[in-house]
């Protein structure tokens, strides 16, 4: 497993991928909750797509795993609402199917679901991915998880990168995010300890299977 620490290194790697493939390529970015995956992918997409180009011409796109959260109503039915964010609270099969569709040659826009953090709910048809996109960056916690439904996701990715910041910073950032989106400080800290941390421990058990380790990158 190779490693990288700077945005420039990652941009160079993505540009090389974009120039050597015949069709669209999927690159996954994974890591524990609060590792900075979304911020990193957004920074890369912004840096790689020229500001003066319309969205329809962008060669780099971002499709997050979070759009495949099950709704709170379905999690309540399944008795999983208090475990929201665990692997079984996502539609992994639907996620894998979308990635397969995005990796195929396309002549029309494909719509991916987004995730509204204020509502804490997925939003259908929120992200347009146009045929011009040569590299689709997708990020989420469980891209390397060794379970049948998640192995389907991994098989759709040409590479998967593991984002690993300093642990104290990761936890601090995660608590701040929960507070920013509506939890009081005590509830936020408890959620990080009781719900997010077991998921983080699970994610780390598969880090050795990543193609690239991104260590110490700070947004």
What does this structure look like?
With about 220 residues, this protein is an alpha/beta fold. It has a single domain (about 1-215), classed as 3-Layer(aba) Sandwich (Rossmann fold), CATH 3.40.50. It contains 7 helices and 8 strands. The strands form 2 sheets. The protein has a 6-stranded parallel beta sheet. Strand 4 and strand 5 form a beta hairpin. Helix 1 (about 5-20) crosses helix 2 (about 35-50). The protein is globular, with a radius of gyration of 17 Å. The two termini are about 25 Å apart. About 35% of the residues are buried.
List the helices and strands and how they pair.
Blueprint: E1 2-4, H1 7-20, E2 25-30, H2 37-48, E3 60-62, H3 72-78, H4 92-103, E4 110-116, E5 121-129, E6 135-139, H5 148-155, E7 159-164, H6 167-180, H7 185-204, E8 212-215
Parallel strand pairs: 1-8, 2-6, 2-7, 3-6, 7-8
Antiparallel strand pairs: 4-5
SS class: alpha/beta
As a whole number of angstroms, the C-alpha radius of gyration is 17 Å
Encode the helix/strand succession as letters.
Answer: EHEHEHHEEEHEHHE
Name the beta content range. 15-25%
Query: Main β-sheet, in a few words?
Result: 6 strands, parallel
How would you name the CATH homologous superfamily?
P-loop containing nucleotide triphosphate hydrolases
The level of helicity is: 25-40%
Return the domain count: 1
User: What is the class in the CATH system?
Assistant: Alpha Beta
Q: What is the CATH third-level topology name?
A: Rossmann fold
Could you say what the CATH architecture is?
Answer: 3-Layer(aba) Sandwich
Number of strands: 8
The global form is globular
């Amino acid at each position: 497993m190779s490693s990288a620490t700077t945005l420039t290194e990652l941009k160079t790697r993505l540009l090389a991928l974009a120039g050597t493939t015949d069709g669209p390529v999927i690159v996954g970015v994974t890591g524990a909750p609060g590792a900075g995956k979304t911020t990193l992918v957004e920074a890369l997409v912004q840096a790689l797509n020229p500001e003066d180009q319309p969205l329809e011409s962008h060669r780099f796109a971002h499709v997050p795993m979070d759009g495949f959260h099950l709704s709170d109503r379905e999690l309540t039915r399944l008795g999983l609402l208090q475990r929201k964010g665990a692997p079984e609270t996502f539609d992994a099969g639907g996620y894998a199917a979308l990635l397969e569709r995005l990796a195929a040659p396309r002549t029309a826009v494909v719509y991916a679901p987004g995730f509204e953090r204020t509502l804490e709910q997925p939003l259908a048809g929120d992200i347009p991915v146009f045929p011009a996109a040569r590299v689709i960056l997708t990020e989420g916690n469980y891209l390397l998880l060794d379970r049948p439904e998640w192995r389907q996701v991994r098989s759709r990715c040409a590479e998967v990168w593991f984002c690993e910041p300093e642990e104290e910073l990761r936890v601090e950032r995660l608590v701040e995010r929960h507070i920013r989106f509506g939890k009081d400080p005590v509830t936020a800290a408890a959620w990080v300890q009781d719900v997010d941390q077991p998921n983080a421990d699970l994610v780390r058990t598969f880090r050795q299977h990543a193609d690239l380790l991104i260590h110490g990158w700070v947004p």
